[in-house]
Amino acid sequence: MLGPDAQACPFSTPETVSREDPTMTADSHKLPALPFSDDALDPHISARTLGFHYGKHHNAYVTNLNKLVADTDLAGMGLEDVIRKVAGDGSKKGVFNNAAQVWNHTFYWNSMRPNGGGAPSGRMADLIGNSFGSYDAFKDQFGKAAAGQFGSGWAWLVSEGDRLAIETTGNADLPLAHGKKALITCDVWEHAYYLDYQNRRPDYVATFLDKLVNWEFAEANLG
Ligand code: FE
Questions:
Q1: H or E element at residue 186
Q2: Would you say 35 and 113 are in contact if contact means Cβ atoms under 8 Å apart?
Q3: How far is the CA of 74 from the centre of ligand 1 (A)?
Q4: 169 near 133, Cβ under 8 Å?
Q5: For residues 72 and 27, what is the distance between their CA atoms, to the nearest angstrom?
Q6: How remote is the CA of residue 13 from the centroid of ligand 1, in Å?
Q7: What residues form DSSP beta bridges with 167?
Q8: Which of 27, 30, 59, 95 is an S-S bond match for 16, by CB 3.0 to 4.6 Å?
Q9: How far is the CA of 97 from the centre of ligand 1 (A)?
Q10: CATH architecture, domain defined by 122-222
Q11: Centre of ligand 1 from the C-alpha of residue 107, in Å
């Protein structure tokens, strides 16, 4: 069950099991279906990258999380509740990392769409203009933040009251663990871009903004 402030991300849509595991139970965490086909983001993100990233990495986080919570008081608890419950608990770091990565990746897939990218319109355009001065200023700041995140992590656009802000988090960390509302995210772990862009993270982030970002999803997350 999603919490009262659950976001628009379809974390619990009915058709979520794309890779069945015989040990799964009815209340196991599921791998949500991708919101597009494996090749839908090509050439910006290749089917090969998506195949590994979704089919191997995202799937592994789901499998690991189910193993870690089995037969504990976290079993059967919704994903966001698990994240909130174990955030900051050093003894539950493995649970946090895997639960957060399940959430982050589902959020990331939905942060993109075929033929996305470019400046938003409507409410998001107004918010970006008010918060950053212009879309170009936002793009410059988001690109620098994402490229500058040292090592593995995530770049986020978050909502803070009536303004937007750019944040980065390391490894699996996410705004939800800090009581903040995410609107979109860009995965800057190397596995997100290395097959297509090698070490050129800034080019991957620029492509994310120019060709992929899903502003409708961002606006839906404003609530
Ligand atoms: Fe990733």
A1: strand 181-187
A2: yes
A3: 24
A4: no
A5: 13
A6: 21
A7: 156
A8: 30
A9: 12
A10: 3-Layer(bab) Sandwich (3.55)
A11: 11
Q: With residue 144 as reference, give the H or E element that holds it.
A: helix 135-148
In contact, 80 and 2? CB cutoff 8 Å: yes
Residue recorded with tokens 């090749």: 39
CA of 114 to the centre of ligand 1 (A): 18
**Residue entry with tokens 């946090």:** 96
Q: Which helix (H) or strand (E) holds 49?
A: helix 47-52
pLDDT at position 173 = 98
Instruction: Give the chain's residues under pLDDT 50.
Output: 1-19
Burial class (CB in 10 A: 0-12, 13-18, 19+), 115: exposed
pLDDT of residue 25: 72
CATH of domain 47-110: 1.10.287.990
- Find out whether 49 and 193 touch, Cβ atoms under 8 Å: yes
Distance (Å) from CA 111 to ligand 1 centroid: 13
| Residue 57 CA, ligand 1 centroid: distance in Å | 7
User: For the whole model, what pTM was predicted?
Assistant: 0.91
Other beta carbons within 10 Å of 217? 21
Can you tell me the distance from the alpha carbon of 154 to that of 20, in angstroms, rounded to the nearest whole number? 28
SS3 content of the chain, % helix, strand, coil (to 5): 50, 10, 40
Instruction: Measure the CA–CA gap between 170 and 98, rounded to whole angstroms.
Output: 14
Whether the upstream peptide bond of residue 14 has omega within 30° of 0, thus cis, is no
Rounded Cα distance between 79 and 3, Å, is 9
Q: What is the pLDDT of residue 22?
A: 60
